[in-house]
Design brief:
The chain is α/β, with parallel strands linked by helices. The protein has helices spanning 2-11, 45-55, 66-75, 97-100, 120-126, 135-143, 158-172, 180-194, 204-215, 231-239, 271-284, 287-297, 326-340, 359-374, 378-382, 414-425, 435-452, 474-481, 486-489, 503-513, 525-532, and strands at residues 32-37, 58-63, 84-86, 103-108, 110-119, 149-152, 197-201, 226-230, 247-250, 258-259, 262-266, 300-301, 344-351, 390-396, 404-407, 457-464, 493-497, 517-519. Strands 5, 6, 7, 8, 9, 10 and 12 form a seven-stranded mixed β-sheet that branches. It has a six-stranded mixed β-sheet with strand order 15-14-13-16-17-18, sandwiched between helices. A five-stranded mixed β-sheet has the order 2-1-3-11-4.
Length: 536
């Protein structure tokens, strides 16, 4: 349990990320740093290109998911494969034996606090413009549904976990790291606060993009009034010129949690990597480059004497403490998923056609069974089906099968999880492939469920290993989608590429419904299903 807790803490400090880079890792070579990093650091590429010309050091990034990256650091699978890691924070790994022993020299490069960004008109309406606002005031207005917001999943992204820690610590008002007993005392206020969350995501970048698409009417999802995200992400959204009105950043007066992005050499790195790390980190901390980072990424400089650009809040920010015990972390996450946040409703449209026979149907069974708690890995622990969640399974082949709906109770959930497990284990393959008849059926199944209980995060997961061969076409589905009730048009479809599934068509489905495409053609289907959980 102690080791699992350590891994859990480590997992929560990484940035929400996308799929791993497909570029080959390669052997160590002079002048090259092989870095395992959060995908948000892709925006540093222009700065790193200039760094390569100035220092002779080339960075070879491998982007990883949050939990996957945490496990790689803590269980030693980074050994010999990477020279450095670059995550949003090293607060927890530095204090965890499994991770700390693999961290060598650590150099902070930039920083960004997690804050609330609201459309400027909403800030004016709330009377917050130019005034100090506490997390308590924010929670009170959120409980009245005076505004809505999006936030990343705290088990998948550092920005989401930082927000959860920040608001919980501030509401507890203890001044020290929050503990399990205090979490219980502030659960009612946290429930108020998270009742206004209308958008979830597994990464900060996708969250910002989804907010922009909804604000501009490019996807049919419910519009939200703002985001809880890194200051850098919110400022970048303003700088993009794509928003119909800018976000006003609200810096809670009782404190924030800040990412400081340490470029961290691994302890077993060779002398060439050590030299390259030193040259690169020295270069990145020069005043001119700190200014370049600020201009390029909207992150704050960490070198004294570099003036903040006008878009940054100039006042000193109060830094809130992180929880430091197993009981506090477990209590905070368990309370969030099982009691505090709005519960989820997910309908899985699952291809069980003849082409799924053999290893493919086995992979599908395994992926679903893993979500019932059978997967005891770190990732599986955080991505299982949760209390209060409603899950509908809709297998299909030549036509959609009869749907089966399961609701996981808050008390004693294992019985219902076992029923989902038995259903998944009973899936068999045969017949044709009616993708769009089945997707249309999914919306018909969801409509009465949503009408009966509308206060849920609702989504569809569509997984297929082939092209549509029976029934209606993509064009037919797109035509019928326009006639759906408004509430159903806001339900996103997360599509999963598997086998010979049509990338073009599944991309169109995800894009037109406000969803996202996940690629399971080169990675395990179970890991993709777990990644999707951060968006539900």
């Amino acid at each position: 349990m102690r080791r699992l807790f350590a891994l859990g803490l480590c997992a929560l400090v990484l940035a929400g990320c996308s799929e791993p880079s497909s570029a080959p890792l390669g052997e160590p070579e002079p002048g090259t740093l092989r870095i395992l990093a959060g995908s948000e650091l892709a925006d540093m590429q222009p700065v790193l290109d200039e760094a390569a010309r100035a220092t002779g050091v080339t960075v070879k990034f491998t982007f990883t998911g949050t939990l996957e990256g945490a496990e790689a650091l803590a269980n030693g699978s980074v050994d010999g494969k990477y020279d450095a890691v670059w995550f949003s924070s090293n607060r927890y790994p530095a204090g965890i034996p499994e991770a700390a022993k693999r961290l060598g020299n650590q150099v902070k490069i930039m920083s960004s606090p997690v804050v609330l960004g609201l459309a400027s008109s909403v800030v004016q309406r709330l009377g917050w413009a130019g005034k100090p606002v506490s997390w308590g005031e924010i929670a009170a207005q959120a409980g009245k549904k005076a505004f809505s917001y999006g936030m990343t999943d705290p088990s998948a992204s550092n920005s989401g976990f930082s927000a959860l820690v920040g608001v919980a610590s501030a509401l507890a008002g203890a001044g020290n790291a929050i503990d399990a007993q205090q979490i219980a005392s502030v659960t009612p206020q946290l429930t108020q606060f998270f009742s206004a969350q209308a958008l979830s995501a597994g990464s900060s970048g996708w969250l910002s993009d989804a907010y922009t698409r909804r604000a501009t009417g490019q996807d049919p999802g419910q519009k939200v009034d703002g985001l809880i995200n890194y200051e850098s992400v919110l400022l970048s959204a303003n700088a993009s010129g794509k928003l119909p009105e800018p976000l006003t950043l609200v810096y809670p007066s009782d404190g924030v949690v800040t990412a400081d992005y340490p470029l961290s050499l691994l302890a077993d790195a060779g002398s060439d990597a050590r030299s390259a790390h030193q040259r690169l980190s020295d270069y990145l901390r020069t005043p001119d480059v700190q200014k370049k980072i600020m201009e390029t990424t909207q992150r704050r400089p960490v070198v004294p004497g570099v003036a903040l650009a006008p878009q940054f809040a100039a006042h000193d920010l109060v830094e809130l403490p992180f929880p430091a015990t197993q009981q506090a972390v477990d209590a905070l996450l368990q309370a969030y998923f099982d009691k505090i946040r709005r519960p989820s409703r997910t309908l899985y449209v699952l291809d069980t056609s003849g082409s799924m026979k053999g290893d493919r149907i086995d992979s599908l069974r395994s992926a679903l069974v893993g979500l019932t708690g059978a997967d005891t890995s770190l990732t599986g622990r955080f991505r299982r089906f949760r209390s209060r969640e409603e899950v509908t399974m809709l297998p299909f082949n030549s036509s959609p099968s009869r749907p089966s709906t399961f609701t996981v109770p808050e008390q004693n959930p294992q019985g219902e999880l076992d029923r989902i497990k038995a259903f998944a284990e009973g899936l068999s393959a045969g017949g044709g492939t009616a993708i769009y008849d089945s997707l249309s059926e999914a919306y018909r199944v969801l409509e009465p469920l949503a009408a009966r209980d509308p206060d849920r995060f609702t989504s569809i997961v569509l997984m297929t290993d082939g092209e549509n061969a029976n029934g209606s076409s993509l064009a037919d589905f797109q035509a019928s989608f326009g006639s759906l009730p408004p509430a159903m048009k806001q339900v996103p479809v997360f599509t999963v590429l598997f086998g010979e599934g049509s990338s073009d068509e599944l991309t169109q489905v995800a894009g037109s419904t406000g969803g996202k495409v996940f690629d399971a053609r080169k990675v395990q289907l179970s890991s993709v299903f777990q990644e999707i959980r951060g968006y539900q």
